[in-house]
Specification:
Strand order of the largest sheet: 2-1-3-4-5
CATH topology of the largest domain: Rossmann fold
Shape: elongated
Number of domains: 2
CATH superfamily of the largest domain: Response regulator
Largest sheet: 5 strands, parallel
Order of helices and strands: HEHEHEHEHEHHEHHEEHEEEH
Mean pLDDT: 85
CATH architecture of the largest domain: 3-Layer(aba) Sandwich
Number of strands: 11
Distance between the termini: 37 Å
Number of helices: 11
Amino acid sequence: MATPEEVLTRRRSDIEAANESPLRVLAVDDDRMYLKRLQLVLTRAGFDVVTAHDGPSALDRIRSDREIGVLLIDLSMPGMDGIETVRHAREACAFPGLYAILLTASDGTEVKLRALDSGLDDFLTKSSSDSEILAKLRSAARRLEMERRLHLQNEELQTLALTDELTGIANRRALFREADQILGSGKSLSVVLFDLNRFKQINDTYGHLMGDRILADVAACLKLNTRIGDVIARYGGDEFVLLLPETTGTAARVITDRICEQIAQLRWDVAGQTITINVGTGLSTAGSGSSISTLLAESDAKLYDAKMARDLGAAELGITL
């Protein structure tokens, strides 16, 4: 699973690539001479042009070519006309917001209204000049660039809204959403609650910056020791939650113990002293009939019981934790 930082970097790269690449236009017309003219005019203007001669071949091209952003299509073609082709094309197109311009030999109002009512974005008559054709395509390019940018930026904002700012892992909101999706799909789920022992004491002694560093390093350790498909989130304060889809209680305990061992090996040097930290855990497992709130409550109760038992055992031995 990609980290939030990797997702954001990839999306910014997508925006930059989209701005640098020429807009790909699919021109469709059964009149091969007019199609050649369109291809020549648009190519000279810097557009990346591919062609098709009828509706079915246009749909095949759209399904196989994920970069097509504009469909410039003749209305009157044998078999499948331009409007019907556009309707099927939008269902098949991977490009968000496929921009469709209808080419027609008629300049009548009825044809224009039919095109717009059918969901096309614009229209051109076959008598249109080269300058008018280019003006329409450049307008389409500006709109598509804006829509693509907004789409990517919206995804970026959603990623940020689901990410814990300090540690870079999922936050509480993302945790609940992921858990609901796992349980809603009918999968079993083990939930592990991790609590850092003595974290408040460390925070008070060495300062919040040191505490933040520890939290970030523990989160990194958790990410490093989880599998593809697992979800690690910061639940709040010094608590983390690990979601283990389709993992039994026994297997979840093995994973949990291994992670605890890895965290216990972490070291921080400050003011001539070495800091280590251990974690307490609570684990619960259930099927699709459970809720994440119930599972977290059960994990929290087991964590509390384990902590009380540990403190009691330490007190009997005269050890202060």
